[in-house]
């Protein structure tokens, strides 16, 4: 999720064509760019703004400013302590987390171990319906918080030692637990967030109280903007700007026009139709950087039309990834024939084998033999700039499989996610993933495990689940990677999704800001950015 997590745009991290005549911004695009203390950043409408319920990139961008993680990652993707003083274990099963002193929530409350314990229990308690719930499943006692009538409301594996120390006991050893703690599911929430123990206030999501470098300025203005201001009591590195306006756009082209006119400061994704001209349009304000996005086409495996792996493999073989990457994305993305990102140790460049090769003749034979549907619908979110590549894909499927194929746009990414969560018929559907934390497991467990937090396609393979579990419990990173690669090989046989492209950050900014950086999680670095004058 990531991503970090599920990504709304077209993975470069995500973009593509929508005519300028169709521009429509929820934010007031003409309000001007930054002054000496304010910067504006384009996002889509978040689905949620509660740390334990945020699994898409726009919400993550906002949350990243409001909260400070226990750990972050260095240039080698190794975790280092941020809000944590230390994270230690002698057996990878019982972990001790000591917090740095001096952190306070934006309402003045001192951050304590209980704030983490309370937030994690809230996220894990099934009736609360939090999207990151499965990320707590490795903690002892998690199972007792599941079901319609759970046996308990608190995980037995979380124990307070003192105000700044708590222990986390897992069900079994997990080599990457420290690495996972950079994910927003593991942020704390203050007492003020709750109306009663374990009961979140309805108002909290509209103005989340965190312990990060920025605090909310007012409330979430849905489909318009979210404003935050620097929190001067933050004990970590201070932001260079005073205020940030996250401006919500429905169309990328509207945002691109605004950044060209200096009416928007940062556009994290250049629309695909503008990739050819963006370098000259923006000059040295056109930027690229590595990122972890993975674009794929998912199938409702519970639907009889797509339940046969051969149908899914045939569709994969009928798509010319290289041509679409070249013609639509102008080479700004890389064709994907694997299920994990190239930025990670353990990545292999071709795990799909023949199923990832463009072979229209064999694709048609396989599709007909497998009894594929006469019509293929590809659903996508209209606010993410996916129309061009979806159109190109359906045209290839028409030509190469002899089927009727159409694209179907949902207004927002949140709308598409809601439909697939409810198993509303949408046909095949585009998905994007930006890592939650830098491990192979994060590209496998959440997306394809039977109870994975972002397994929207109903895929289930016990052997896959077993291998991911064994990788998590491995004693060394090399042993873990070997298990994860075996699990990835199973995905190549079952093909619940079709890998399409790996992306990079391709972004632009106004003349009013400098030091604009984007990380592997598709987030603007809110601490580094500053006014140009």
From TrEMBL:
<dbReference type="InterPro" id="IPR000914">
    <property type="entry name" value="SBP_5_dom"/>
</dbReference>
<dbReference type="InterPro" id="IPR039424">
    <property type="entry name" value="SBP_5"/>
</dbReference>
<dbReference type="GO" id="GO:0015833">
    <property type="term" value="P:peptide transport"/>
</dbReference>
<feature type="domain" description="Solute-binding protein family 5">
    <location>
        <begin position="82"/>
        <end position="454"/>
    </location>
</feature>
<dbReference type="GO" id="GO:1904680">
    <property type="term" value="F:peptide transmembrane transporter activity"/>
</dbReference>
<dbReference type="Pfam" id="PF00496">
    <property type="entry name" value="SBP_bac_5"/>
</dbReference>
<keyword id="KW-0732">Signal</keyword>
<feature type="signal peptide">
    <location>
        <begin position="1"/>
        <end position="21"/>
    </location>
</feature>
<dbReference type="InterPro" id="IPR030678">
    <property type="entry name" value="Peptide/Ni-bd"/>
</dbReference>
<dbReference type="GO" id="GO:0043190">
    <property type="term" value="C:ATP-binding cassette (ABC) transporter complex"/>
</dbReference>
<protein>
    <submittedName>
        <fullName>Oligopeptide transport system substrate-binding protein</fullName>
    </submittedName>
</protein>
<dbReference type="GO" id="GO:0042597">
    <property type="term" value="C:periplasmic space"/>
</dbReference>
């Amino acid at each position: 999720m990531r991503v970090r997590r599920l990504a709304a745009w077209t993975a470069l991290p995500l973009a593509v064509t929508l005519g300028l005549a169709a521009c429509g911004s929820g934010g007031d695009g003409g309000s001007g760019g930054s002054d000496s203390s304010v910067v504006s950043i384009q996002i889509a409408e978040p689905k949620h703004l509660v740390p334990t319920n945020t699994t898409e990139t726009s919400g993550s961008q906002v949350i990243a400013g409001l909260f400070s993680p226990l750990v972050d990652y260095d240039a080698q993707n190794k975790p280092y302590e941020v809000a944590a003083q230390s994270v230690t274990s002698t057996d990878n099963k019982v972990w001790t987390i000591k917090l740095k002193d001096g952190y306070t929530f934006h309402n003045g409350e001192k951050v304590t171990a209980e704030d983490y314990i309370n937030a994690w229990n809230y996220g894990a308690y099934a009736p609360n319906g939090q999207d990151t719930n499965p990320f707590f499943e490795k903690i002892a006692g998690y199972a007792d918080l599941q079901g319609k009538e759970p046996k308990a409301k608190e995980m037995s594996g979380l124990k307070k030692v003192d105000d700044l120390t708590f222990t986390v006991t897992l069900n079994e050893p997990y080599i990457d637990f420290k690495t996972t703690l950079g994910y927003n599911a593991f942020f704390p929430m203050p007492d003020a967030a709750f109306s009663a123990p374990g009961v979140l206030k309805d108002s909290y999501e509209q103005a989340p109280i965190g312990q990060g470098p920025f605090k909310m300025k007012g409330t979430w203005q849905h489909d318009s903007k979210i404003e935050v201001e620097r929190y001067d009591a933050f004990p970590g590195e201070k932001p260079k700007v005073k205020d940030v306006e996250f401006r919500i756009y429905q169309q990328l082209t509207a945002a691109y026009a605004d950044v060209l006119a200096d009416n928007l400061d940062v556009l994290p994704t250049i629309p695909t139709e503008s990739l050819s001209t963006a370098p000259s349009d923006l000059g040295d304000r056109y930027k690229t950087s590595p990122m972890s996005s993975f674009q794929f086409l998912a199938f409702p495996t519970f639907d009889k039309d797509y339940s046969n792996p051969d149908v899914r493999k045939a569709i994969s073989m009928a798509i010319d990834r290289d041509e679409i990457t070249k013609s639509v994305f102008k080479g700004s993305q890389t064709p994907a024939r694997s299920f994990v990102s190239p930025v990670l140790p353990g990545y292999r460049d071709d795990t799909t084998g023949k199923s990832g090769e463009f072979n229209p003749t064999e694709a048609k034979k396989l599709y007909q033999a497998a009894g594929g549907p006469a019509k293929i619908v590809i659903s996508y979110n209209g606010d993410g700039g996916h129309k061009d590549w979806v159109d190109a894909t359906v045209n290839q499927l028409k030509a190469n499989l002899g089927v009727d194929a159409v694209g179907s746009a949902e207004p927002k990414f949140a709308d598409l996610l809601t439909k697939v969560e409810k198993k509303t018929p949408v046909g095949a559907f585009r998905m994007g993933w930006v890592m939650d934390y830098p491990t192979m497991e994060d590209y496998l467990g959440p997306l394809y495990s039977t109870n994975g937090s972002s397994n929207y396609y109903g895929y289930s393979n016990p052997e896959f689940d077993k291998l991911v579990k064994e990788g998590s419990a491995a004693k060394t990173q090399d042993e873990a990677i070997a298990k994860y690669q075996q699990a990835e090989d199973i995905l190549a046989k079952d093909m619940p999704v079709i890998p399409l492209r790996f992306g990079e950050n391709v972004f632009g900014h106004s003349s009013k800001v400098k030091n604009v950086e984007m990380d592997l999680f598709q987030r603007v670095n809110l601490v580094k950015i500053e006014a140009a004058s």
